[in-house]
Every structure is written in structure tokens, then in C-alpha cells.
Design brief:
This protein is an alpha/beta fold. The chain is built from five helices and five strands. It has a five-stranded mixed β-sheet with strand order 1-2-3-4-5. Helix 1 (about 35-45) packs parallel to helix 2. The protein is globular and about 35 Å long.
Length: about 130
């Protein structure tokens, strides 16, 4: 089995208890998408509701990467939570714009801007006790 020429690196940090910042480096494509998906699933499993995806070091992304972003976006909305893309490279931004993903998933220029968007989301309504 050949080794990927451009392995994917995903660093996860927690700016807040319910927020995961995933800093992605490398090609996000059919060969690396499963690894990316595992990192997101792990954070969902640990109760994170908001996902900040720093794509500033991703020179290329194909439909596999976009599908994972859209899948976690749908899962996060049901929590309710959110997904934010941060600083995509020009090539990735072009793909996000052409496919309409950037209309659905907010794109921010910095982690601080994405956190401000998280703070601006409506509070989760508390279910009344019966």
C-alpha cells in the first residue's frame, strides 16, 4: 500500500468546553478524509457542539472533504451547535464558493471572528420540567 505523499495533520485544541478548534494541514481529499472524519466524530462524542475548522494550511480539498464538513454541519445543527470554516486558502475558498458550501457554512478570517459568531448564536432554549 503506497504511503500518502501529503499526509494530513489535524491538531485539536479546545478554546472552550463546547468548542473544538481543528487546525488542518495537508490535502483534504479521498485519501485523508476518513482521518479528518474520525477527529470530528471524536469531538462530537466528547460533547463538543461548535466546530472551528482552520483550513489555512489546506492547499487542496475535494468533494470528500466537503462532504465531511457538510455532514458535521448537519450533525452540529441538530445538537444545536455550529460549524465555522477559518481562513481557507484561495483554492479551497474557490471550491467552497463554487459549490455553495460557503453560503451554508460560515467562513471567518480568524479564530476570534469565528468565536464571536458562536457567541452571537441564540442560546439553546431550556426545556421546561414537567
Amino acid at each position: 500500500m503506497p504511503i500518502a505523499q501529503d499526509p494530513l495533520s489535524v491538531e485539536v485544541t479546545l478554546p472552550r468546553d463546547d468548542v473544538a478548534l481543528l487546525t488542518v494541514e495537508g490535502y483534504l481529499d479521498v485519501d485523508t478524509a476518513t482521518e479528518f472524519q474520525h477527529h470530528l466524530a471524536n469531538q462530537l462524542h466528547h460533547g463538543r457542539r461548535h466546530f472551528l475548522l482552520d483550513l489555512s494550511a489546506v492547499p487542496f480539498m475535494d468533494s470528500s472533504g466537503m462532504n465531511i464538513i457538510l455532514r458535521v454541519y448537519q450533525e452540529a445543527r441538530e445538537l444545536p451547535g455550529s460549524v465555522h470554516i477559518i481562513s481557507p486558502t484561495p483554492a479551497v475558498r474557490r471550491i467552497l464558493d463554487l459549490t455553495g458550501v460557503s453560503i451554508t457554512v460560515p467562513v471567518s478570517e480568524s479564530v476570534d471572528e469565528a468565536l464571536e459568531r458562536v457567541d452571537a448564536l441564540p442560546e439553546t432554549p431550556v426545556e421546561p420540567e414537567v
